[in-house]
Amino acid sequence: MFTIGLLTAVFLIVLSLLSGMVLTLLIQWYFFNRYLMKLPMVTKTDEPTAELFEIPKSLLDGCFKPEPAKALNSVLQFLFQECRNSNRVRRWFRARLSLELEELLTRTTTGKLFEAIALRELNLGTQFPNIDCIEIKHLNVNPTSGLIDDLELCLLLEYSGGFQLTIDANMRLNKTARVSVKVNELKGQGCLKFTRHPYTHWSFSFYSDPQLQLTVESQFQGRALTQINSIIASQIRKALKRKHTLPNYKLRYKPFFNKSEEGGVDDSPVVMLSGGLDVAVLQVSRVSETTGPVYCSLAVDSMAWVEMVHSETGSYLTVDVSVLKQGNSLGVHFKQEFVADKYQVCFVVESVAPYVVAEVRPGDILVAIDGKKVTSLTQISKCTKQAGDRVPLRLERRLKILPGPPSDDKLLEISGLRHRRGSGDKTDSDSSNSTSLSDSPAKKTVQETPEHKVIHRLSF
After folding, report:
1. DSSP code for 199
2. Strands 446-447 and 390-400
3. Is cis: bond before 210, omega within 30 of 0?
């Protein structure tokens, strides 16, 4: 009797548990069909959600006063502490210094005394430059787009970290020299500027000559030359004033922005995708002021699309051409000139031989040969000799917009409407400062030669 009663109790418990589970599921199913399934259907939206950039009102309404930068200094010192001995940072410093040494070797009169200059030792010092105070000097907000066009920060910098580098130089007549420079103190008022014109970049320069104290040690053939230490220190101060003191500055991109190298090839694997593609243009900025309409064209194609871009000083088209050699002669004569529009020394086509079939015109500015950016006439000669029968050239051509009533062709010129690249020996660049086909209206304008000063000439 006791065993039967125990089995009955277990059976009743299991039955109650199963009944409760079934009853709970039935109630949930009833409410799901009774209420949830009777709600109206909501259409599925595939449009991406994107909002435009907006500056906080507190930043616009606030007054610009000098502020201490203790928190910023702490962050910078921590990053410097952790990264100063990393391979990536040291490689970057070595690359920048090697570029400066190469410029010294190829572009200055002093460089003619040396055959090779190498960076022997690099010490980044014990600390990062300290920012005593920081102030917003200028903030320019575009009234139409609401974006920040220019931001200028005034920094009071002070450095005593002991940055040091040692350079070995092989001079003519098999002579060797060594120079060691250590920065004991650097103090001055710096200008850190971010701008979107003519394209997004940043720059840093001093407002006036900074206070600079150096320790210079020099050797020639293993013997100390204390007499020229003061001369080297003076030359360093002059170079700092010439390159990094306003109104002189250098355009920089990394680590904030990326600038694709001219002629670079993307080696990343191509991912083949199938399906539909919807593209929405959210915002267009930095459009030149024109008298006619401006069009925005989007395309996905196996061939590149190109455009013409205007600057405040002039309109330049970038043209990629392929010149066929006749023996060892290229048939193009270059000269080194100072171009006023660009405010820099450029390599300009002086004359073209009659047998040159490619579209090369006198006055064109040479940018690159076979994807390599040119920096000297010697490099032009070397790259031309190393190239094959066909020499790819990248040129910039200055255009002139004729006065008169705006025709259809001129509207295309002014607005910079994109054109598709075709085939043949002459190809158009897909860079941001490029040109269209020979039948493009932009190519039918009159050539204008900028004012310049002739420096050197080179013929091939």
Report:
1. S
2. antiparallel
3. no
Q: Across the strands, what pairs with 322?
A: 392
Q: Is 158 within 8 Å of 88 (Cβ atoms)?
A: no
Grade residue 239 by pLDDT with cuts at 50, 70 and 90.
confident
Burial 229-266 (b: 16+ CB within 10 A, else e): beebbeeeeeebeeebbeeebeeeeeeeeeeeebbeee
What residue has token string 């405010």? 343
Q: What is the dihedral of CA 120, 124, 125, 127, to 10 degrees?
A: 180
Residue 295 and residue 415 in contact, taking contact as beta carbons nearer than 8 Å? yes
* Token pair 């920096």: residue: 375
Domain ranges for the chain: 57-244, 305-459
Cα 244 to Cα 208: distance, rounded to the nearest angstrom: 9
d(CA 150, CA 194) in angstroms, rounded, equals 6
SS (H, E, C) 36-72: HHHCCCCCCCCCCCCCCCCCCHHHHHCCCCCEECHHH
At 366-414, the pLDDT tens digits run 888 887 888 888 888 888 887 777 888 888 887 765 444 444 444 344 3
pTM of the shown model: 0.55
Please report the sign of the dihedral spanned by the C-alpha atoms of residue 291, residue 296, residue 301, residue 306. positive
- Could you give phi then psi for residue 177, rounded to 5 degrees? -145, 155
Q: Is 363 exposed, middle or buried (0-12, 13-18, 19+ CB in 10 A)?
A: middle
**305-459: which CATH architecture?**
Roll (2.30)
Residues 47-98: tens digit of each pLDDT: 666 677 777 776 776 667 777 888 888 998 898 888 888 888 888 888 888 8
Which residue's entry shows tokens 């903030």? 139
By CB atoms closer than 10 A (0-12, 13-18, 19+), residue 185 is: middle
* Residue 397 CA to its chain's centroid (Å): 22
